[in-house]
């Protein structure tokens, strides 16, 4: 009965060879398009930490739509730090779990956003449908790709940018609502995260325009299809501030508060800022921003605070159950 | 004498075939068309995609293929998948035999309810299966606060993945065994017990040998599903690379990171598992068939004697 021994030995070997974790590790729960950014940043930070303290460190990553990731942290995913797409999601973690203080956003510079981004259009080469601004998107026959605002942070930024444009251009909230209703009628698929939408647009070739994070659009152009796509900058867009923070209670439990804090602070150093810029996020450090100014188009930016009175209010009005998005979007149509 | 014997033996067989062909009453073209259609379907929906998976996997050469499989996160995903299957399959074998034994050899009230419950994982979407565990073990769930107080994690850790895998695979063994054991009835066991065998002896010497093929078949299917499960595991995994990622989840991550060759390299492992499963399943069926024929022949011979 040799094979029995073999199976037993294999099973045992598998269990035993799972490495006993000697080194400390921290878990960064992030949103969808930051995969490449944090892959590079983690490597740099582990090197830096080793050089500073001599301690070997492992940084674990988890990615997904921002809403979904928030949900997971609330349900018990033990993130030491979260690096999400918008402040409201971190507010929700603070409110529902009490694992971090309510005023978390004041703990790090620039509203706890080490890098910013905005929303742009990605269109196919030569811009065959002639899409130049938000009002072009609701022309008949234009297919718009955006993720689902219920699960994706990027999608909420898309939605608010479109709303801000319409409210300004057509002059009332009612008309802005009409515009948004029309816009979402032109959306054939709602993916759950920004990366899913990019794949839908770029790989599967669906749609005429992708409403995307600027970083995601630049990544798609530079890494996937040089010459196949173009970026269109609309007349107005939104300043997106993806915030980062420590999840205090989780870090305390793991005994990683010091390293998790250092990790976040390292994002603000010139090294961290350069990595952000190279991954198409707009650096907040003016020096690095100047160095990479050519990479980012000039955009006329509004903020959530100016137009919507902050994320709490925007979330409640537009994205919570029964909010405006639920009223205007009917998938069956 | 011998010549006519052969002729006699051949002739009825020949006529029988002719009759049955006439009985179906259709021309050769229809049979060919139907066979061709079935083959075309298989080719388009099964063979071509399978071949494409392997082609895509090797699109950047052997080095990239091997690198994708030996990279630490991939290697960890392979190990985690094997561990989950190594726990889920034996547990489901025990549960499956116990359930099938109870249902087929005894009469009790609520039997039908039990059979229906065993089928539940087939009827429930895997996503719901995952969410059930989040509701029970999540930090805001039923047992969550207690688990947290005792520093235990189930969701977003290996135990959650194993639980989800057990849930989605638990009908496989039982479902395979119940009809088999019902068909066999209880006469052999009763005979063994009358002759003074203990319950355990009866099980080991009488029941187990007669169900072994069905059992193996169930184990193979159960294993294939355990290793391939995506939905339920995705909900409870938390997607932490190198920690709670199984093979199917790793494929998704690689695909989303535009590493298509690597994604398909890992996918080819899963495809290979499917092929091995099918081959093992066919081999078992073949063997089982032969066994049955042999025992049938032996039975006839005995009657003749």
Number of strands of chain A: 12
* Name of the CATH superfamily of the largest domain in chain B: MetI-like
Listing every helix as H and every strand as E from the N terminus to the C terminus, the arrangement of chain B reads HHHHHHHHHHHHHH
Name the largest protein-protein interface in this structure: A-B, 30 and 27 residues
CATH class of the largest domain in chain B: Mainly Alpha
**What's the number of helices of chain B?**
14
Rg value of chain A: 22 Å
Helical proportion of chain B, percent range: over 70%
Do you know the CATH topology of the largest domain in chain B? Answer: MetI-like fold
Overall geometry of chain B: globular
Please outline the helices and strands.
The complex is a heterodimer of chains A (333) and B (305).
Chain A: H1 2-17, E1 24-30, H2 35-53, E2 57-62, H3 66-74, E3 81-83, H4 87-97, E4 115-116, E5 119-124, E6 144-145, H5 153-170, H6 173-185, H7 194-202, E7 209-213, H8 214-224, E8 229-232, E9 237-238, E10 244-246, H9 248-254, H10 257-266, H11 270-278, E11 282-283, H12 286-291, E12 301-302, H13 304-308, H14 311-319, H15 324-328
Parallel strand pairs in A: 1-2, 1-3, 6-7, 9-12
Antiparallel strand pairs in A: 3-10, 4-11, 5-7, 5-8
Helix pairs in contact in A: 2-11, 3-4, 5-6, 7-8
Chain B: H1 2-24, H2 28-57, H3 61-70, H4 72-105, H5 111-123, H6 126-137, H7 144-149, H8 158-169, H9 171-184, H10 187-194, H11 199-228, H12 231-237, H13 247-256, H14 260-304
Helix pairs in contact in B: 2-14, 3-14, 4-8, 4-9, 4-11, 6-8, 6-12, 8-11, 8-12, 9-11, 10-11, 11-14, 13-14
